[in-house]
């Protein structure tokens, strides 16, 4: 079905002057010249203080927390911070819709499906985990522009998957940035507020998302309470320390036993394993590794494996701890459960598949009796992408 985009605001838009030119208020805040405050080109008074009319753009759990905070502020009639709250989200293959849509429907908030952005009048836009570039024409329709709640300390990890890359690269410190959206490029606008937090040791991307979503929601409300002042004090992002957080491709989940260390594989598991299972190859069959753990040195001592040269991908069952031990580039990782045709514990996998290779009369072939790197066709990798959050 073809979706038509309606005109965003009516004839009395507060956002543009004659011929669609930006209002003096927005031009001043955006550093484009003009006098702050007053009226726009059509004589419509621009609000200088709350309550604000907000249009929210978001999709996932991280964005849902920001929307929840905005809705709570709207319901708080004593504070009078938010007067109007509408929501824009993207299409979802799930009948329930994405987390933001689910929350908006439950809270009886108006919901529009991108690229439809409604036809109301708004003071400011808010974006969190939206994953779509917003046009300059759309941005300039808001007197106070559009704010972005981004789960990293910009300019580190610009892009759609900052939390995943924070965990994947072993960062010890992260944070949230409230920034001003600029057209044509992601995550390059001025910083209005930024706070840092330590990354909890061994935390998954999902666990970190929960921490950062709450921090981001509180920071957003703080900025909205002093919006004009926050915008006037915005600072440009540093040119040093820029890194990018692209979407995670399907090929990223395929473990490379000969190339990746045990720490790299465990970080990969914590970064994406709870979203998409890591994969490898077992006797020409794709197998998913569902529950990965660190291996205690005492376990390796039990198996008398120290000092022996073992081929990466080799699999050994440790009966006492009931885990599969898999050799990687520099050591071993543990696997508690896998999925072949169905979900199997390490003990089930050993009894059904691994044990026959270790019977006394068998002569196991090393190339078959180990996990091997699964190489996805280039074409398939290009088609299958997953993005986090902000995760």
From TrEMBL:
Reaction(s) this enzyme catalyzes, per UniProt: L-methionyl-tRNA(fMet) + (6R)-10-formyltetrahydrofolate = N-formyl-L-methionyl-tRNA(fMet) + (6S)-5,6,7,8-tetrahydrofolate + H(+)
Keyword Acetylation part of the UniProt annotation: no
GO cellular component term, pick one: mitochondrion
Family: Belongs to the Fmt family.
Protein name per the record: Methionyl-tRNA formyltransferase, mitochondrial
Keywords, alphabetical: Mitochondrion, Protein biosynthesis, Transferase, Transit peptide
GO molecular-function terms, A-Z: methionyl-tRNA formyltransferase activity
Biological classification of the source: Eukaryota, Metazoa, Chordata, Craniata, Vertebrata
Major place of residence: mitochondrion
